[in-house]
Specification:
Blueprint lengths: L2 E5 L5 H10 L3 E5 L3 H9 L3 E2 L3 H5 L4 E4 L4 H9 L4 H4 L5 E4 L5 H13 L4 E3 L2 E2 L1 H7 L2 E6 L2 H12 L2 E8 L3 H30 L3 H8 L7 H4 L23 H18 L4 H18 L7 H7 L2
Parallel strand pairs: 1-2, 1-4, 2-3, 4-5, 5-6, 8-9
Antiparallel strand pairs: 7-8
The structure holds nicotinamide-adenine-dinucleotide.
Length: about 300
C-alpha cells in the first residue's frame, strides 16, 4: 500500500481521497477549507496544516483543484510542490484544467525528473463517491503504469489518452460533444412541443433512429422517458450548467490556441453563458431546455 498526499478535498476530491483510504492506502489530505479537512478526517484520513506537509515523504501526490491557475501556482509557484516533494514522488493532477497549463506543469515536473500525469475525470460526485469515475490520462507510459493502480481505487475506467495534456484534451473534446448534443436534443423536444408531437413518441422514435445519443437516451431533458434523468427532479444537478460552461470555455480556449474550427462549440458556450447569466448556473445543464422554450 502507498503513502499518498491529496490536495483539494472538495466535492470531488473528498470522496476520491476517502476511497483511497478505503483501499488501504495511508492518505494525508490538505484543503484551504477546514470543513473539507474535517470531513476527510471522519472518513479515516489524516489532515495536515499545509500543502507542503501533505506532499512531503509520499509515494504519490494527487491534486483535485478548481482551475488551471490553482494548479500552476501550487506546483510551480515560489516554494511550490515541485520544489518540496521527494525525488521519486508520482504526481497525479485530476483537476479539469486547460491543456496548455497541464502541459506546462508536466514539462516543469519532467525538468525535475518527476513522473506526472494529468488525469481529469468524468462521472461527477456520484461517481467519485461510488468509486466508478472514468479517468482520461495524459503522460508517459511509465507514469501511466505507476498511476493506474492508484486510479483504480477511485474509478472503474482508466484510459491512457497519450502524452502530457492529452487527458485534458480528451475531456474537453468529449464535453464539447455533450454540450452541443444536449442543446440539439433540447431544441428537438422544444420544437416537438410546438408541433404537437408527444415527448414519449419522439423519444421512442429518435432513440431507435439516427438522432440517438447519450443526451437523449441516458440524460433525457424532459421528464418521463428516462426516469433517472434530472428533468424528473426539476433539473437538480447532476452536472451543473456552470461546470458545462467551464468545460466549453476550456474547449474554446484550446480551439483558439490550436487553430481548430469549432463553431457549434462556440455557440454552445454562448448559450450556456446566457443560461448562467440568467441565474441558472447551479441548475443541471439539461435545464437549458427551459431557456430555449422561453425564447420560442
Ligand atoms: P470544489 O470547489 O468542491 O473543490 C475544490 C477544492 O479545492 C476546494 O475545497 C478548495 O478549497 C480547494 N483548493 C483550492 N485551491 C487550493 C489550494 N491551493 N490548496 C488546497 N486546496 C485548495 O470543486 P469540485 O467539484 O471538487 O471540482 C474539482 C475539479 O474537478 C474541478 O477542476 C472540476 O472542474 C472537476 N470536475 C468536477 C466535477 C463535478 O461534478 N463536481 C465533475 C468532473 C470534474
Amino acid at each position: 500500500m502507498a503513502t499518498i498526499g491529496f490536495i483539494g478535498l472538495g466535492n470531488m476530491g473528498g470522496p476520491m481521497a476517502a476511497n483511497l483510504v478505503k483501499a488501504g492506502h495511508q492518505v494525508k489530505g490538505f484543503d484551504l477549507m477546514d470543513a473539507a479537512k474535517s470531513k476527510f478526517v471522519e472518513t479515516g484520513g489524516t489532515a495536515t496544516g499545509t500543502a507542503a506537509e501533505a506532499s512531503a515523504e509520499v509515494d504519490v501526490l494527487v491534486t483535485m483543484l478548481p482551475a488551471g491557475r490553482h494548479v500552476r501556482e501550487l506546483y510551480t509557484g515560489a516554494g511550490g510542490l515541485l520544489e518540496t516533494v521527494a525525488p521519486k514522488t508520482l504526481l497525479i493532477d485530476c483537476s479539469t484544467i486547460d491543456v496548455a497549463t497541464a502541459r506546462e506543469v508536466a514539462a516543469a515536473a519532467a525538468g525535475q525528473g518527476l513522473d506526472m500525469v494529468d488525469a481529469p475525470v468524468s462521472g461527477g460526485v456520484g461517481g467519485a463517491e461510488a468509486g466508478t469515475l472514468t479517468f482520461m490520462v495524459g503522460g508517459e507510459d511509465q507514469a501511466f503504469e505507476r498511476a493506474r493502480p492508484i486510479l483504480e481505487a477511485m474509478g472503474k475506467t482508466i484510459v491512457h489518452a497519450g502524452g502530457a495534456g492529452n487527458g485534458q484534451a480528451a475531456k474537453i473534446c468529449n464535453n464539447m460533444v455533450l454540450g452541443i448534443s444536449m442543446i440539439a436534443v433540447c431544441e428537438a423536444f422544444a420544437l416537438a412541443e410546438k408541433l404537437g408531437l408527444d415527448h414519449q413518441k419522439l423519444f421512442d422514435i429518435s432513440s431507435k433512429a439516427s438522432g440517438q445519443c447519450w443526451s437523449l437516451t441516458t440524460y433525457c431533458p424532459v421528464p418521463g422517458p428516462v426516469p433517472t434523468s434530472p428533468a424528473n427532479r426539476d433539473y437538480k444537478a447532476g452536472f451543473t450548467a456552470a461546470m458545462m460552461l467551464k468545460d466549453l470555455r476550456l474547449a474554446q480556449e484550446a480551439s483558439r490556441e490550436a487553430g481548430a474550427a469549432t463553431p457549434l462549440g462556440k455557440h454552445a458556450e454562448s448559450l450556456y453563458a446566457e443560461f448562467e447569466e440568467g441565474g441558472q448556473g447551479a441548475t443541471d445543464f439539461s435545464g437549458i431546455i427551459k431557456m430555449l422554450r422561453a425564447q420560442g
